[in-house]
């Protein structure tokens, strides 16, 4: 089925290409025919001019010749001597006629367009240099316009096709993510049951507590997957507490050679959030910082309460990011790791800015010394 669609698509592209070539060829042929017709007209015009200049004053049969000369309203003509001294202009802009330099430049232009007509006035030879009429000039640029229109629509169709294909792939990944979340849900429920049994059998409370935290974390991850493709619901949550919970879960489960510090206000700050996605954001930034430090260094989290906004600063002592890459690191697929898909920071940016109406940026970074990321959210409006 896909091969059939591919063949049809290429047949349509080929047909469009040949149609364009046919139109261009016909336009070129018509251009050449019309150009030849104009040359014939100019031959007649030159002969008529020659007849008038050499006619006797008593000749009364010059009406047709005068009519031919006055009928030319479109073809620009410059009449010159053998030494290129300009004698007269016909159908030429007054600004050119009144400016000697422009007149000479215009004469050079006409010389490049067509071979001049020779007129014999007595013993003197004069030349009629003529240019293309306005219609011929339009025909000359018509193929260029046609090609540009064709390219425009080609790019438009290509982008539409690519967007459609990307949407289909996203739909597939969304379905897989939701199915994965559904499949994970069953064993998680069983694990929760086993934890309860372990509590009844008086297993060390610290062990069951940590296992319960890990299972709860898996439930959170499954919930994240189940929400992929759906518009997240935002509710007022205490960003201080939600950030603390994620930090307290991750810090003991990562490298022991990292020195953690966290500075949070001792009061709640209500922000419109999806708590699962916010947890994902903090987790991505913390893991990114740990990778940048290669498991050794200092990591600091600071929440700054402002008048209408709240900032979350996450600072590491890792390798740092060059300034020219401050925007590029948020692009999907960009990574400096040997193993990685380059999705962490791009996903974080999407969660923060598209789903939660916040902002994320590299607040400060110095190569070899570390990086500070800054998240900014608007505070919940008080009623």
From TrEMBL:
Query: Where's the Histidine kinase domain?
Result: 179-381
* Transmembrane segment boundaries: 7-25, 141-161
Extract the GO molecular function terms from the UniProt entry: ATP binding; phosphorelay sensor kinase activity
Catalytic activity line of the entry: ATP + protein L-histidine = ADP + protein N-phospho-L-histidine
PROSITE patterns recorded for this chain? HIS_KIN
Name of the top EC class for this enzyme:
transferase
Which UniProt keyword terms apply here?
ATP-binding, Kinase, Membrane, Nucleotide-binding, Phosphoprotein, Transferase, Transmembrane, Transmembrane helix, Two-component regulatory system
Protein origin, superkingdom: Bacteria
What EC number(s) does this enzyme carry?
2.7.13.3
By what name is this protein known?
Answer: histidine kinase
Provenance organism: Myroides albus
